[in-house]
Amino acid sequence: MAYTPAATKNQARALRAEPTDAERKLWSLLRGQQIAGFRFRRQHPVPPYILDFACLEAKVAVEADGGQHNGSAHDHHRDRELASLGWRILRFWNTDILANPDGVAETVWNALMNEA
Q1: 15 backbone dihedrals φ, ψ, rounded to 5°
Q2: What domains are there in the chain, each with its CATH number?
Q3: What's the pTM value of the predicted model, to 2 decimals?
Q4: pLDDT digits (tens, 9 = 90+) for 75-111
Q5: 23-82 pLDDT per residue, tens
Q6: Strands 49-55 and 60-65
């Protein structure tokens, strides 16, 4: 297992303590192996990044994005780096998570089934 700096661990803990409304909703869909028996972690460090939700078994990350992520070059770079490590990144707008949670859950299920 790769070394995770203490600052990254602390930041992940802080993010878990104060989730956004969309993150709360998404966690209610992902927790407890509700989607095809896959286990997710919240705010999981993959240094130097922190994934909103991560399924280690399938290497699928689920990200809840607000307006600050609109076409972000940082996000594109981050996604490329994570993909090079074998991660598949699923990004959902916060508004979509809140308005269409069933559609989001179905998309995550499809991604997991294609990875299994």
Answers
A1: -65, -40
A2: 6-115 (3.40.960.10)
A3: 0.83
A4: 889 999 999 999 999 999 999 999 999 999 999 999 9
A5: 999 999 999 988 999 999 999 999 999 999 999 999 999 999 986 655 667 788 999 999
A6: antiparallel
Contact partners, residue 61, CB within 8 Å, separation at least 6:
44, 46, 51, 52, 53, 54, 55, 82, 87, 88, 89, 90
Amino acid (1-letter code) at residue 43:
Q
Residue type, 74: H
Under 8 Å between Cβ of 103 and 96: yes
101-115 helix and 21-30 helix, angle to the nearest 10 degrees:
50
